[in-house]
Amino acid sequence: NRKHEMKAxxxxxxxxxxxxxxxxxxxxxxxxxxxxxxxxxxxxxxLNFNARNIDTKNGLKVADSGKxxxxxxxxxxxxxxxxxxxxxxxxxxxxxxYKTEGEVGLDDAWLNLSRNNTNLKVGRFEAADLFPKGQDIxxxxxxxxxxxxxxxxxxxxxxxxxxxxxxxxxxxIMLTQGxxxxxxxxxxxxxxxxxxxxxxxxxxxxxxxxRPVVTYTNEGFTISGGMExxxxxxxxxxxxxxxxxxxxxxxxxxxxxxxxxxxxxxAQMNAEDETDRSIxxxxxxxxxxxxxxxxxxxxxxxxxxxxxxxxxxxxxxxYEFKQVLGxxxxxxxxxxxxxxxxxxxxxxxxxxxxxxxxxxxxx
Length: 363
What we know:
1 helix, 16-stranded antiparallel barrel, mainly beta, three-stranded antiparallel sheet
């Protein structure tokens, strides 16, 4: 009866709590069941040791140059819950992060309602990735090139993620529908986007990104394609000119087995006075990862951003040591990259070389 069911759930919760307390290596702990309500606690910790050298030529200005060596990292907690009644499932996720520098952040905070193969998700999250880079890597872009800010002094690396999500102040709604091997999603990000534009240089108003993506998967093969468009006027105004109306396209395809993967990506953004293109390829074989990214900015000479046209080439590699010291949830990564930025029609350039040792523990 209902009383005995509730008693069983309480015993299950108590047992799970005892297991969690006695087993530091438990990779996530689940309480309850989906009918009465299920809660899962998990997380991970990343600690990084970083070495980096930045070199500029012919007067190119960057925020930092020279050699540096530092340690950083963060701890991430995840609380996930769900309950199913009939054909309907209601789920949520809350995922705060705490950096070793003392900053507190938030990755995910969402509520999802699903019925059969249809999902409606609201909150803070990331939609489909159309420019994946392979396994856990370490990459910086030369010349202060940014992949998360459209107002940059030198270079903007477009990766089809302006409307992907986790925006600073903006909200997000996504509808996903499955059709066998095909999944279609339409994600929207709406509100102010000071996270992708330097607010000291621009007037920021509410925006609306619409991002449809279609993905096909079959026995290790995947191909995804989509677009994202900011459809409102005067959302980001610089020196009286609207640069916020934008439309981008992207596609990625790949194949993966247990010990091998290969990916190819393409992205293009058409914006005011500027067209940005990026291609990327990467592969992983038995824990060894290699990748390359090529970016091109074609900027009108009369652009209000006063930014030159240019190109960016970045090579990266990584190696994953699994189950260090016999712990099945303790991994170590070695990563390195080399990035070069060059301005068109000038001799200005920058080189960026870095390496990282990452310790990652899941709990």
